[in-house]
Amino acid sequence: MAYDNKTHRNTHQLKSRLNDDAYADLKAEALSREIQPGALVRDLTLAALRFKEDYGYFPLIDDNELDGFPALAELALELKVQPAVLAHDLIRAALQARREQDAITQVNDKQLSA
What we know:
Blueprint: H1 6-17, H2 20-33, H3 37-55, H4 70-79, H5 83-113
């Protein structure tokens, strides 16, 4: 399928590889960062590669990988949620905390430069 519009082509490729909920989450995150979803996917891919470089494995959400984190599985059981859902929630919370920290840093930098 050929597309004249590059943005439309990239959007179609992302949508066809993700379920609707995942694409909606990706699109919302990209909108909050004021970038295209494809650019966010690139950034996430680079972050995953950097993570693998530092820790030796990819940070994939897979129940098999959670075997190395028994405390996470226990917490998920206690909270009555699936481990993968808990991991997603923790990742989102960490990203939100990072954005808040970045915003504080930017405000502090502006105050120091004034």
